[in-house]
Amino acid sequence: MNTPTITQLYDSPHAVSSHSAYVPALVESLRVDTVLNFDLYISPQGGSGFVLYRKENLPFTKENAEHLQHKDEGRFYIAAADRSKFLQYLERNLTFILKDDTISIEKKSTLLYHSAANTVSQVFNNPGTTKNIRRTSSMVSNISGYVIGNPRAFQSLLKLASHDYHTYTHSVNVCTYSLMIADSMKEFSPGELKELGMGAVLHDIGKSRISDNIIRKRGPLTGGEWAEMKKHPRYGAELLADNKYFSANSMSIVTDHHEKLDGSGYPKGLKASEIGLMARIACVADIFDALTTSRPYKGAVGSFDALMLITREMSDKIDLHVFEHLVLLLKVT
Ligand SMILES: [Fe+2]
């Protein structure tokens, strides 16, 4: 049997069920005095053999928290069938967890990163609803409240970001980089930063309309497949067009994040002044994250090499002022 891992909790339901009937989670994800709507289990042998620790619908006490802290490296388990209940609980409580000074930055980052990726995965399944736009909005607030002005938090999220590429984690990464770049440029109001974060996290939402066979293809795309792939900015705009909570600034990122200053981008082939600053920022963040995460058809490039590659091959395509801010951020952290 495979030993369950923390990240398994946040994998797709399919991936979880193929591993184990129980999945581990960090005790820091549970807030004292909240009533849990899922059973808690412990594993005296550390991942094989599970014992019911606390039934659902009971408050989680300080004694429970202290007890679990000392067991199995502060992990507990939930039944795989309760995974979505647990993730909903985590999402509801995340703002408080991120403000809790007793929790380490590494653990906060893990909880934020995986909760955000889970939210994105659900939003991608049903993007245009007001409920999901609101969930995205509170997720962006959590990310910006956590990383802006806190280089250590940004650095620890960066460490998590260097794992395998997935559309959902890529969305979280691009949002995080975009917010950090924009904050360091000092050209945006808090409201505009929020709009930027919303657009960045949903920049690839149009890919939810493209066949998995194209999205997950290991080899190079055919001409026809590539033409379909290039439609994702337009699909994204269509999916979000009717939602009044998704602003024009946010939309500019969805539609223009693949446009390049020299006119070589898509879908419209816009040039320099036709591309707004928010889309330019998301474009740089998107390219950097695409290079520094591994995909089925290519390995990951280190941060330094990625910056060199962008400098060498893309300097007439991207906004160099934006890029300089990314370079400075990575230098500082
Ligand atoms: Fe894209």
- Secondary structure class reads mainly alpha
Order of helices and strands: HEEEEEHEHHHHHHHHHHHHH
CATH superfamily of the largest domain: Hypothetical protein af1432
CATH architecture of the largest domain: Orthogonal Bundle
CA-based gyration radius: 21 Å
Strand coverage percent = 5-15%
SS elements, strand count: 6
CATH classification class of the largest domain: Mainly Alpha
Q: Bin the helical content.
A: 40-55%
Which fold name is given in CATH as the topology of the largest domain? Hypothetical protein af1432
Written account of the structure:
The radius of gyration is 21 Å and the shape is globular. Residues 1-18 have low confidence and may be disordered. The chain has 15 helices and six strands. α6 (151-161) runs antiparallel to α7. The chain has two domains: 1-82, no CATH class; 104-332, Hypothetical protein af1432. A hairpin with an 8-residue loop joins β3 and β4 (51-54). By secondary structure, the protein is mainly α. Helix content is 55%, strand content 6%. The strands form three sheets. It has a two-stranded antiparallel sheet. Strands 2-5 form a two-stranded antiparallel ribbon. Bound molecules: fe (ii) ion. Fe (ii) ion is lined by residues 203-204, 232, 257-258.
How do the helices and strands line up, and which of them pair or pack?
Blueprint: H1 13-19, E1 22-26, E2 35-36, E3 40-42, E4 51-54, E5 58-59, H2 62-69, E6 75-79, H3 83-98, H4 105-125, H5 130-147, H6 151-161, H7 167-185, H8 190-201, H9 212-215, H10 223-229, H11 232-240, H12 248-256, H13 277-292, H14 303-314, H15 320-332
Antiparallel strand pairs: 1-6, 2-5, 3-4
Helix pairs in contact: 3-4, 4-5, 4-6, 4-7, 5-7, 5-8, 6-7, 7-8, 7-13, 7-15, 8-12, 11-12, 12-13, 13-14
This protein binds fe (ii) ion.
Fe (ii) ion binds at residues 203-204, 232, 257-258.
